[in-house]
């Protein structure tokens, strides 16, 4: 063992192999175990193409930097919905060639509220559109950025346009506010964030 | 003959050759203009990314208090946040640490860097990766939102290849060393490269992360190891060189260093999942994580104790040198904020602090208070020696105090505010209450961030002052120095 101080092959291969063993045991192994045990909740359906587009925008705009999607089995998390279980995430698959992994929607920050069940809590698409355009139009103390580039201001909306009925301080000076396809996709995704009911209300980790 | 005598004859008493015979320092390491330019280039680009990354960070801090400042998509908060974190991780900290390692590994192996050419290649590749990563993130193209691996895989592939090239370069250097023992710095430094290659490969392998839960298991591993198996061992390994060298005495205990090293590898690896305490990831992984978070205290005490005991008896010297003060501050930050990290993993405290701004304070106290301060200590120790140009004591002091006070003004309010945020959630107040509560603390954060940024401008100026002299000027100086030695 003393040899390890002067034998670089021994030292470096111990370092490398030891770490690979630990990594497989603590990360890769459990991840594979999770993969094999992932089942969607009965009665839930995969995301539609539109919702999937919305998820891409959700990830691309970095929403996950401020919003978690994981409700812990704690009293303090109860306003957001029931405790999350792995099956809740079964429909969030890989996003494409540049994101061949599932999106990291669980998050680590709550600068804004949790969104795991936002579709139940705030089911109005009109509210979601106005809030996305400028959050302070509906929540005066909000510090969330607005996403005006997901919208267009047109003089006269066409029959197929999704008009956002925003009024007051934050409304465009003239013309009508119209949600682009991106905004429609993002809102469709957020409204799809509804926790499916579980047969047993008790969720245990044991 | 003296030149080729191993500087490290006994691993228990590594000494700078300078202490005994000044002329014995291997000239092929000390005074190689080619290597000096290479290392300086690393520091120059690292400084560039420090300025860019922290300017963006400061801008993000301001956005908390002024969300309608502008509404340009490329500058929106969600896109810029990972630009900031990745630029300071992979641009600033990584380039600076690699640059220092390219000096320390050859030096403690008593030979020349295996390939300066490969050193340049990896420098270019890392810069290309960080630049491309920055632009793609701003364009709204990312890897799926896992923290610190937001760069898409083609970008991270370039970065990882550069890390592999540096690893090869350093291992070849150690393998052909002119000393028997492998100095402890090189354990840490080479290990950091080997571990990080494994971490990046696992982090970017898709087939076992196709749902958000398995992805989170890997994410906990990746973000945690990215910090603790890359920045931490690099910074510690470099300190095992710079501290004894600056104090002109050997490290207190080689065995403590080895103990800290192996427990780092074992315990730290076992605790990655503590970032997802209470999350729907397997409960037993979380329990292991929590238990070994406490075990990490052994590593911390062994590592910090070793450095402080090395300093013992020399504190007068430490307090007279800003270079050593940077290192002292970094070592203390390593101890306190890593211990704080262990505390955060305890379930009761996690309850109040998880998801809050407390964690933002923690990541800055560690990546900045610990890593950046040790880097600065290393740069101020090394560059003047390589280039024969030292910045003014006043400006190094200005950098030190602005950075230290800035970090305090940044993080103390965030810790207080973050705790209040958590308590507000526990009390069941409406969410927006926690946003309103945070506002004054976010203003303080912006003030602290500004002080930190100003300190970086001062640092950048100091780096400029320490630039290598031109070859003719150097030749004159070398001649003069040699004349001095002979005289």
Would you summarize the structure shown here?
The complex is a heterodimer of chains A (206) and B (487). By secondary structure, chain A is mainly alpha-helical. Chain A has helices spanning 8-36, 49-60, 118-121, 125-133, 181-192, and strands spanning 151-154, 162-163, 176-179.
Plain-language structure description:
By secondary structure, chain A is mostly helical. Chain A has 2 domains: 2-36; 49-192, Cytochrome c-like domain (Cytochrome Bc1 Complex, Chain D, domain 2), CATH 1.10.760.10. Chain A has 5 helices and 3 strands; from the N terminus they run ααααβββα. Chain A has helices spanning 8-36, 49-60, 118-121, 125-133, 181-192; strands at 151-154, 162-163, 176-179. In chain A, strands 1-3-2 form a 3-stranded antiparallel sheet. Chain B has helices spanning 17-20, 27-30, 33-65, 77-109, 116-138, 153-175, 184-204, 212-247, 254-270, 283-311, 315-320, 322-345, 347-353, 358-387, 393-426, 431-465, 471-486. Chain B is built from 17 helices and no strands. Chain B is globular. The longest helix of chain B is centred in the middle third of the chain and has 36 residues, at 212-247. Chain B has a domain at 30-182: Up-down Bundle (Four Helix Bundle (Hemerythrin (Met), subunit A)). Chain B is mainly alpha-helical.
Structural Rg of chain B: 22 Å
The largest sheet of chain B is: none
Total strands of chain A: 3
Mind describing the biggest β-sheet of chain A? Answer: 3 strands, antiparallel
Number of helices of chain B: 17
Structural key phrases:
heterodimer, A: 206 residues, mainly alpha, Cytochrome Bc1 Complex, Chain D, domain 2, 2 domains, elongated, B: 487 residues, Four Helix Bundle (Hemerythrin (Met), subunit A), 17 helices, globular, disordered N terminus
